[in-house]
Each structure stands twice: as structure tokens, then as C-alpha cells.
Design goal:
rod-shaped, alpha+beta, Type Iii Antifreeze Protein Isoform Hplc 12, six-stranded antiparallel beta sheet, 12 strands, two-stranded antiparallel sheet
Length: about 290
């Protein structure tokens, strides 16, 4: 019995080895056929999982596989260590080849400053849910800005609202900017730095807009006197600027504002003129006396 069991065991092992040899030969034959049909295989880096836009790449998000050379894209990455720490400029699906044209190194220039147009300025204005359209404004939206200022003194003091800017570009809401590329932040004068992700939550308290230097100065003045500033959201295709009147309590209620005696212009009394005497009639040249 023991000899039969031993013989059966050796036969099973031999059969397994033979199957492995056959499988290896079949795999080599398939590889050779693939090489003849599509060319030699090369290593390429692919996404191990779905990579979102502006994600920072690390080794856990990538893996190296072999693909036919004809199937490898020209800008595909072949060494994962060369792209660790770079930022994805576009989303990549699982199994997709990682291209160096879709990657960028974080730098100081990937923040907000490079998005401000030449000749313009970025100005931040504090907002709440009422002033900021329930905080539904997003970076890249276009808005109008309405300001409220108290005009007059004493009993003549009245709150006025006026649209001071139209069709203004929103650069950021809180610390979320149009281009959410992470920024490289250097720690002091040392070589140490950190990569700060600019993708934050929607619970912001400020809105940053792009305006001219003159408009920036006016907005700073309004915030310095704690004047309320409101934002109205525009359709992105609506670029028309229209003249709007100033609003106050009187025109809101459709009534005329009563003027004080000092504001009333006294009526001029009509000046009486004496009737002029009639001019003497002219005599004819041949008229006899």
C-alpha cells in the first residue's frame, strides 16, 4: 500500500510539473506571437486606481506593466520614480497609461498670482450667505458688485445702494481658486518646503475678484468703512453692462423724497414792467404839412 501511495504521489507531482511546463511553453508561444504581431513588449507606468485632477502622484497610485511597444503612447512614463510628487493636470482612469504631458511639478507659480491678468488686481471681500448668493458662487463665475453707503447727515441721512461694478471675474472663493493646482510653499530660507493643496471646502467667508487698480482702491475703501458689499451672479454668457440707478427707500417705495426748507429753491417773484409808449408814425417823403 505504501509503495502504491508513493508511486501515486510521484505521478501527481510529475503531472503537475509537466502541466506547468506546458503552460509556460504556451505562454511563451503566445508572447512570441504577440511580439511578431505587435512588436516587442516594453514596460510602461499605468494608473493603479482612478486619479483625480490635481491629485499628487505617489507610488501607491501607479504600477509598472508590460505592453506591446506599438500600444505604448509616445509620452508614456516608464519609470514611476521620475513622476512621484508631480500633479495630475487631468483625471486618469484605472489602467490608463500615465503621460508626462498630463503632469506638472508644483511650484510657487502654480498659485493665484499667475491667474491675475496683467494690469488687473486681485481683491478679497468678506461675504456671508446673503451677500454671496448663499455661497453658491464658484471660482470662474462672473458677478456684479453692489455696495451700500449712508449719504447725508442727521435727519437727512439715508442708505443708498448702487451697482458699482459689473461683469467681474471671480478668482477664488475662500482658498479655492480657478486653477486648484497645489502650490509649493517654501519654509523660510531653508530648503524645506510643503505641497499645499488648494482644493478646500465650500464653507468660505471671502470672495476674491479681479478688478482694475482704481476699482480695487474703491473696494478697499468700502471695506474700510464697513459698508455692505453684495454679489449678484451672472449667466456666463451674459457680458452686457447696463446703467442702473441708485436705490434708496424713496424710489423703492415709489415716492418722492420730501425736501427740507434749506433744500427748497425759493421762487422768483415776477418783475412788473411798465408799458412802453407807442412810437410816432413815420411821415411820407412827399407828405405836406
Amino acid at each position: 500500500m505504501e509503495q502504491n501511495e508513493t508511486r501515486t504521489l510521484w505521478i501527481s507531482i510529475a503531472s503537475a510539473i509537466f502541466a506547468v511546463v506546458l503552460l509556460y511553453g504556451w505562454a511563451q508561444d503566445k508572447r512570441a506571437n504577440m511580439a511578431r504581431k505587435f512588436g516587442q513588449t516594453k514596460t510602461v507606468v499605468i494608473a493603479r486606481e482612478d486619479i483625480r485632477e490635481f491629485d499628487i502622484l505617489d507610488e501607491s497610485k501607479m504600477e509598472v506593466v508590460e505592453r506591446p511597444a506599438d500600444f505604448i503612447q509616445p509620452s508614456a512614463v516608464q519609470d514611476p520614480t521620475q513622476v512621484v510628487g508631480q500633479i495630475a493636470l487631468a483625471p486618469m482612469r484605472k489602467g490608463e497609461q500615465i503621460l508626462d504631458t498630463k503632469l506638472v511639478f508644483p511650484d510657487k507659480s502654480t498659485g493665484l498670482s499667475m491667474q491675475v491678468s496683467p494690469g488687473k488686481r486681485a481683491v478679497t471681500v468678506p461675504v456671508n450667505e446673503v451677500q454671496g448668493v448663499a455661497k453658491l458662487i464658484k471660482p470662474g463665475d462672473r458677478v456684479d458688485i453692489v455696495a451700500g453707503v449712508d449719504d447725508g447727515k442727521g435727519v437727512n441721512k439715508i442708505r443708498k445702494l448702487r451697482t458699482i461694478l459689473q461683469d467681474v471675474t471671480v478668482l477664488a472663493t475662500g482658498q479655492s481658486i480657478v486653477d486648484n493646482l497645489p502650490i509649493k510653499v517654501v519654509q523660510g530660507d531653508s530648503d524645506d518646503y510643503e505641497i499645499r493643496n488648494m482644493r478646500v471646502e465650500n464653507n468660505y467667508a471671502t470672495i476674491t475678484v479681479e478688478v482694475s487698480p482704481t476699482d480695487a482702491q474703491q473696494l478697499f475703501y468700502l471695506t474700510s468703512i464697513s459698508a455692505p458689499v453684495f454679489f449678484t451672479l451672472r449667466n456666463p454668457n451674459d457680458r452686457v453692462k447696463i446703467p442702473l440707478p441708485t436705490s434708496d427707500i424713496n424710489n423703492v417705495l415709489n415716492r418722492r423724497r420730501k425736501r427740507t426748507p434749506s433744500q427748497v429753491t425759493p421762487k422768483k417773484k415776477p418783475v412788473k414792467t411798465l408799458p412802453r409808449a407807442p412810437k410816432p408814425a413815420k411821415r411820407g417823403r412827399y407828405e405836406t404839412l
